[in-house]
Amino acid sequence: DIQMTQSPSSLSASVGDRVTITCQASRDISTYLSWYQQKPGKAPQLLIYDASNLETGVPSRFSGSGSETDFTFTISSLQPEDIATYYCQHYDSLPLTFGGGTKVEIK
Amino acid sequence: EVQLVESGGGLVQPGGSLRLSCTASGFIFSNFAMHWVRQAPGKGLEYVSAIRSNGGSTYYANSVKGRFTSSRDNSKNTLYLQMASLRAEDTAVYYCVRGGTAMVTILDYWGQGTLVTVSS
Lengths: 107, 120
Prior knowledge:
The complex is a heterodimer. By secondary structure, chain A is an all-beta fold. Helix content of chain A is 0%, strand content 49%. In chain A, the strands form 2 sheets. A 6-stranded mixed beta sheet of chain A has the order 2-10-9-4-5-6, with no helix packed on it. In chain A, strands 1-3-8-7 form a 4-stranded antiparallel beta sheet, with no helix packed on it. Chain A is globular and about 35 Å long. The mean pLDDT of chain A is 97. Chain B is mainly beta. Helices cover 0% and strands 48% of the residues of chain B. Chain B has no helices and 11 strands. In chain B, the strands form 2 sheets. In chain B, strands 2, 4, 5, 6, 9, 10 and 11 form a 7-stranded mixed beta sheet that branches. Chain B has a 4-stranded antiparallel beta sheet with strand order 1-3-8-7, with no helix packed on it. Chain B is globular, with a radius of gyration of 13 Å. Chains A and B meet through strand 4 and strand 5 of A and strand 5 and strand 10 of B.
């Protein structure tokens, strides 16, 4: 199974700050990586797929980059509505494993 | 609009069984692989199971293999997860998730989830 290591596990930032989350795969997954946002009590929502493609309707302040084993997720200007937990997930092979999640809070 | 609605969750004793259902609408259900993902209270996301669009192939995580069975009825646009020999560690919200035409692909739409609690 491919292991996904996500960091940090939590962060606190101010409104307007740039926020960066990293995700590392245990082996080469090309760009078969998604990022999800999960707000409390809600289902995860797909934000980014193929490592860098923005899902339709997702604000452009969200972005992703990377390939092979190292990936980055960025919120260019943190907004109050971005408070959530973010997960990376690969789709290179079964099982489709997730990173441990990053909880983003407002400072 | 794609919609996935899970049902069947509840309280069950250790060793018991439960069947979850997921009713799909807004897309051609028979064209898509479907998945189950669970989330224990306060924890992260755990991949559980996948089933091919025609139901001809399934995959299970090691943690549920031999105890859980995924099936589908494409005539009813419904996905099922039969859970047996339930353990306390199976307590979680179970999400039904749409995949793509292949089993290994993006998970793009999620249901709202149904809570399964395994406790005596």
